[in-house]
Design brief:
It is a single chain. The protein is of the alpha/beta class and about 300 residues long. It contains 13 helices and nine strands.
Length: about 300
Amino acid sequence: MTKDAHKLAFLGLGVMGYPMAGHLATAGHRVTVYNRTPQKAAKWIAQYGERAGNRVAATPGAAAADADIVMMCVGNDDDVRAVALGADGALSSMRTGAVLVDHTTASAQVAREIHAAAAAKGVGFIDAPVSGGQSGAENGKLTIMCGGDASVFARVETVLASYARAVTLLGGPGSGQLTKMVNQICIAGMVQALSEGIAFAEKSGLDALAVLDVIGKGAAQSWQMDNRGKTMVADQFDFGFAVDWMRKDLAICIAEARANGAELPVTALVDQFYARLHAMGGGRRDTSSLIRLLREPR
């Protein structure tokens, strides 16, 4: 290992976690990986195992046992609890002074639960959901929204930068997850608006690509327009952030809004549109497939 390298563990090698763990190995850290499906972990170690010290562990606890920092990126609140708090979970073996970082998009409540459980064992915790999708993970350009104690964040910031263009502490435990909710609320509204705009252009007989090129140079410009506009016009959706993943995230947002009194009328409506896409068999398509409801109204 290099002078600034750490012993790390990465738990969860999905479409996001696999490349994120790869960036850590490429940066010279010693990485132990765990994945619920062993074949995925075997594939990862075959790709990165030539770098000294990288290995596969059979359980989250075995992976985390001697790590300075443990990252996890799993599916939902239940997965977070199982991987962190289970009998063979990360906190069952993490040493005092180590830090657990959760990149899962989950609830603020579960972040606070894990923070308390970690603190009881002398382990630091940062909730750190990400934005940027699979391409951001692969290119090391994620935006990471963090919640937790400032002193703990300072110990992991440089390591997290291995796969990020921005790593920001937003407040205490749960603040990262709350910020990710804001992110998803904004995206839901933007994708629906972009869908309506493109569908309107098509119904009006305009060249939708030319329209996007023009308005993309003005106030309507957005990441969604830049990265999804052309594929929406082409009716291509077999990539990107799946409808079912967005439905999970919006359910978290809506539940939190019920608890804190925020009103999310547009978000709730777009969530219903995503439910329709799922019912049509489109749960694995990209979230930009919202436009299909306007092209194929029911």
